[in-house]
Design goal:
about 160 residues, Arc Repressor Mutant, subunit A, two-stranded antiparallel ribbon, mainly alpha
Length: about 160
């Protein structure tokens, strides 16, 4: 019924979603996240992909605020506050008042958080290795390079004012 309606109003039928790079990227991200989280839970590590991303950011740059973490992780400040509060409640990270601005709380990983992150990272690396297993070493290098070039290209695309095709 929908297809007949679409033909009647002269809307071209969409291609199979598998034909779109954006769909494939979304599907890859989704499956990677689901597989990693399932493996983490199976060994008793109760960190979501989002929690792991926060810990990853803090491992590289301790002392980030929730607002900075939100920008880096691509979520709203409200969502980040909820995620950070959960990690603080678990004892994985701690918040400290910023020395120059008492309204800003800086986040730091606690030793238990660093250990959980390291364990989780090994598990995630195993899932990623399984994902890349069908590729040769040269294909892996090319894949990583292609991803970096796609990211760099999108960094130069304005958020608005771009005409549709």
């Amino acid at each position: 019924m929908i297809r007949a309606y679409m033909r009647r109003i002269k809307v071209p039928l969409p291609l199979d979603p598998q034909e779109f790079e954006g769909y494939l990227i979304k599907e890859l991200h989704y499956l990677l996240r689901v597989r990693i989280e399932a493996r983490l839970r199976a060994v008793g590590i109760h960190l979501s992909f989002a929690h792991a991303e926060i810990l990853h950011q803090l491992m590289h740059e301790p002392g980030l605020s929730s607002a900075q973490l939100a920008r880096r992780c691509g979520v709203t400040p409200q969502t980040m506050n909820t995620l950070v509060a959960a990690l603080a409640e678990q004892g994985v990270l701690e918040r400290r008042v910023h020395p120059e601005n008492a309204r800003v709380m800086r986040c730091f990983i606690r030793p238990d958080g660093a250990q959980a992150f390291a364990r989780g990272r090994r598990i995630a690396d195993g899932v990623i290795e399984q994902m890349l297993q069908p590729m040769s070493k040269a294909e892996r290098i090319q894949f990583k390079d292609s991803l970096r070039r796609c990211i760099a290209a999108l960094e130069h695309v304005p958020d608005s004012g771009v005409a549709e095709r």
